[in-house]
Amino acid sequence: MPKTRTDLTDDSLIDLKYITNDSGFTAKYFYSLMKRGEFPAPIKLGRSSRWLLKDYSEWKARHIGRRDSRQRLK
Q: Which backbone phi and psi does 48 adopt, to 5 degrees?
């Protein structure tokens, strides 16, 4: 069972594995979103890519908000 990190803050750097595990989407999906400008670009650290937890959390919250607003319209 993967170890859950509870000590993350908004300025923590997360990797794509964290994002895919949390969201259930594939890396290919996120790279296609980045290409279209719909997901934050990574912070490059050598050959590694990382994202701010805050950027990912805001992206996720926007999508949840869109879903919720669509459900209220029905």
A: -95, 150
